[in-house]
Amino acid sequence: MRMKKISLVLAILFLVFSVEINPSAYALELSSSKTMDKYEEIGKEFLKEYYYSIDMKQDMNVSKYIKDENVLQYVDLKHDIIKNRNVRFFFLHYYDRDKAASTQAAANQNEVIIPEIDLQKIDDFFIGSEPPHLIYADRDKVIFETTGGVYVYDMKGKSLLRSFDTVSFASESYSNVLRSAFATQDGKQLIFIFSKGPGYVAAYRYSLEDKFMSELTGKEYAEYLKKRFEYSYLDPGDELYQKSSGLIITISGSEYVYLTFQDWKVSTINVVYVQDDKETVYSMFTSK
Fold this sequence. Notes:
The chain contains 7 helices and 13 strands. By secondary structure, the chain is an alpha+beta fold. A 5-stranded antiparallel beta sheet has the order 9-10-11-12-13. The chain has a 4-stranded antiparallel beta sheet with strand order 1-2-3-4, with no helix packed on it. Strands 5-6-7-8 form a 4-stranded antiparallel beta sheet, with helices on both faces.
């Protein structure tokens, strides 16, 4: 292995100093795929073998760095690396790519996934002991939850955008917890809470824009609570109380949204959008 590294150093030095002797001999020609492949391999090997073994600033503008004492042929490459645009280009290319991959890998490790609800079985799902609960609505979309999960429905596109099977997620991650969710005031974030009694066990944020979910710290959760979308229940004497199960979300002075259902089946849940007393009914699961 030591001889292999020494040979590799000598090969790189030969290429580096060759540019010093004949700058045009190894000029980077973007039109040549063979040249690109050749120097791509040089950059890859250089990064793999040496970047992590020397103390070098990322911008390559260094005054000194630690040499590998076990490789006597390792000389000061600073000026030659900077002059040799081929090696330097691919060195930085692979460093940037490696850094981006590491950043993405770290993000993926922090990502949490709540599975979608199996809509093929929607006819078998019952709403639960309580009516479906609206947690957000505007002119474009409606978000509501049942005891089995959370649904995001696009009224303009007349399609279900996303569902969240919080039951299966909780059963795999936590035991004997209460599940709930709320949306932020702008409707762009969903917050899922898993709690026991008055205290919460865990909270997660899902962005409807970038479709990314991550766990929240206690401080972050408290901040999102301040941005919670607010709604109010109807008075039992209101004529809409029975039809809407007591909850509507007002969009404007002449617009509001509520849900209806039959036989306590999830597949029968409809969104009712009302504007100037005119109702538009959206049957969310009829095409599923």
